[in-house]
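Case study 2.
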Amino acid sequence: MSPRLGHLIRKELLQLRRDRRMLFALIFAPIFQLFIFGYAVTLDIKHIRMVVCDLARTADSRELVNSFARSGYFDLAAWVDSPSQMGRPIESGRALIGLYVPHDFSKRLARDETAQIQVILDGTDMNSAGVAGGYTAALIAQYSGRRQSASPTGGGPAAAGMGMPVLQGIENRPRILYNPELRSVNYMVPGVICMILGTVMTAMTAMAIVREREAGTLEQLIVTPIRPWELMLGKTLPFAAIGLLDVVVIIIVARAWFQVPMAGSGPLLLVLAIAFLLTTLGLGLFISTVSRTQQQAMLTAFFVLMPSVILSGFMFPIENMPRAVQWITYAIPLRYFVEIVRGIFLRGAGISVLWPQAAALVGLGGTIFALSALRFQKRLG
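Prediction:
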């Protein structure tokens, strides 16, 4: 490292220390985002209000209904005496789901016949309805499995949710890998690393360079013996170091506070985070060359980064997107880093599994950084 580059990095760190707002955005804002995503952005739904119409009124039907109450996901909000009365609590919003148990429920079970029940869902909020339907199907399948296990002959056809029969001698025992408790925090919190490196670092790098131009100090740096590549590294390396520090802090908070397991290698994650930083710093350099003010830099960063977040698979599955849009996602580096982070955290994947994503990330990141660096040096020249 040349002395000029060392002095420039020191100058940048001192400037960051004096700029309290920038320091807050780089150090404390990521932790704030971590708690927002960990607590507020959750895919779990609990305390689902349920209306029940149990015409059987037997021990079997009471056991089925009580299994919903014991699960912790459902609250028995209302009981009605006829199926025609189930629509009113759902229509008024007092219940999201209705469970109807016909009068011959236990008789059919005793005769090894298919005992049908009906589940009514409020589709106004399709996400909540879909999750509630999944919980319902799982609870009914567990109830059916318990009856089969208790039967001396293995049990006959029984209610398996949504009227689907359970065939005699066949018992479904689902197994959930990597996130057996289906905790959404395990899914969302690792993605905060991607959000911070992908958005905060890009915007802060661009704004730091544009701020120098607004203050007139960038021109003063240009006329010094500092070379363009030294100026570029001096402006980007401090943010790279802060980005890696943020990654370490998030990993510590995720494991200690949110109890998110990390099945894979932390050093591997840091190495691949450096590769992703090539992309974020490169985008920051590029945005600084097309922006004259900090407001322009922030708006440009928002325009570039928001589609990347939406198309990266961070919150919305890529498989559900149109085929043409799926092809576009292959050009978004954040897509590969999201797969890497979640693969290391949840599946414990190593480089032998993640090398395609790592290779694509290094290739895209290196290309973006190189092109942005050439444009940055040309603008300085």
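The longest helix spans residues 184-215.
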